[in-house]
Amino acid sequence: MGIITSRFLGISFQVACFVGLIGILVCSLLGGMKAVTWTQVAQYIILIIAYLIPAIVMSFKVTGVPIPQLMYGTALEKIAALEQTLKVTQPHSAAFVNAQGQFSAVAMWNYFALILCLMVGTASLPHILMRYFTTPSVRQARESVAWSLFFIFLLYFTAPAYAAFAKLEVYQGLINTPIANLPEWVKSWGRPGLALVGACDAANAVQQFPLCRGVTGNGDGILQLNEFRIHADAIVLATPEIAGLPYVISGLVAAGGLAAALSTADGLLLAIANALSHDVYYKMIDPNADTKRRLVISRVLLMVVALIAAYTAGSLGADILFLVSWAFSIAASGLFAGLVLGIWWKRCGNASGVAGVAAGFFVCMFFLYTTEFHGPWVKQAFSWLGDIQIVKIRGRDVAYIWGINNISVGIFGIPAAFIAQLLVGRFAAPATKEMQEFIDSIRVPSGEVKLAPGAGPAH
């Protein structure tokens, strides 16, 4: 959200994070769970229209067929031919290749490990699970899941096509272009304060394009492929301008990005604020608090969490892709085993559930933190695991255990959670009969939603 606000209002990224926060708070504070759910419906409609139009236009422009999901193979063929012309050592259009352009089993396993963490993480994210509490019956909750998967499929099935056509536009319309003739979008997205694009031909290019820091160009006045830099966060938003589409399309894509940010942030803020107000304040600090007081506390906590998030985003400036992947791995490690075994294994009681959450979360966070910030120590301490590589990334020596990128660290936490929960469940007390009957009731498609034992209407 900070990127979009910074680009179109011309303000610094740090300030833009707080300006964008106003929109998030308006949606979050004026309504509750049901209001956020309905606004997310409207936001998705904006998002999918904004996402599909540029892809459809680029597909028609390149292939003559306005179905990008089926036609981006043509774009990949052209990219492969251009990469040979540009003498790219590691073809981007080839799957599972190493730096020498050869097949890499490690690249393949990284790909599938990330898929596993993203899928299992999606099934475990609290702010996603909360959405189904707004449906009146078990059957409608299941139907809601089916429709959700369809619309998610529509969005993600377009993503590879969007990326392929965007890369083709960069290769065809930008590389080997004279620096004096660079399109306006390069300067707009590369300016100080945003710094998501860099044309790094001249020695002093870093003054105009901060992203060029550390890149040495040959100064011939022509933008070579190795002199061009673009941040991953800019790809989706800048693609309409890259493709030379009308500016209104860029605005539409920005609106879609804002809708996506609002939709995600609203759900996350409500999940965090409600968890703190109910599980911490009401359950641990003031069990006698009435509904009105708890609502006020929830709104205050929502403001506090939102401000902390905006400050962190503005000051950290981190790559959102690996942060999001970490979040999915953490959710998968901490919650997935409890969700699955809690519903399908009747020996899963309180102790078993807590053990699974604790073990999965600890193992995941341990490997995430140590591999990211103490790579050499991991290589020395866990040499018995076999192949551990040290890769210079994000300015740090990051450890890759068995060549696996630590954004997929959930592959260690998920099995740890299942093992801990199954072991403790064998010896600890199982779930109460009351709870087992409640779990049985939610398996019936025609059943009505029931409250868990001991839960009042507020819960």
Structural class: mainly alpha
The largest beta-sheet arranges its strands as 1-2
Assembly state here?
A: single chain
Mean pLDDT across all residues, rounded?
83
Main beta sheet strand tally, sense and closure? 2 strands, antiparallel
Strand content: under 5%
Number of helices: 17
Span between termini: 32 Å
Could you estimate the helical fraction of the residues in percent?
A: 55-70%
Shape: globular
Model regions low in confidence, pLDDT < 50 over at least 5 residues: none
H and E order:
HHHHHHHHEHEHHHHHHEEHH
Can you tell me the number of structural domains?
2
- The total of beta strands comes to 4
Based on CA atoms alone, the radius of gyration comes out at: 25 Å
Written overview of the protein:
This protein has 459 residues and is mainly α. It folds into two domains: 2-275, no CATH class; 319-454, no CATH class. 65% of the residues lie in helices and 4% in strands. The protein has 17 helices and four strands. The chain has helices at 2-9, 13-29, 33-63, 68-85, 105-122, 126-129, 138-173, 184-190, 205-208, 235-242, 247-285, 291-316, 320-344, 350-373, 375-381, 410-427, 433-442, and strands at 197-199, 228-230, 388-393, 396-401. A two-stranded antiparallel sheet has the order 1-2. The chain has a two-stranded antiparallel sheet with strand order 3-4. Strand 3 (388-393) and strand 4 (396-401) form a beta hairpin. Helix 3 (33-63) packs parallel to helix 7, helix 4 (68-85) runs parallel beside helix 7 and helix 5 (105-122) packs across helix 13. It starts with a helix and ends in a 17-residue tail after the last helix. The mean pLDDT is 83.
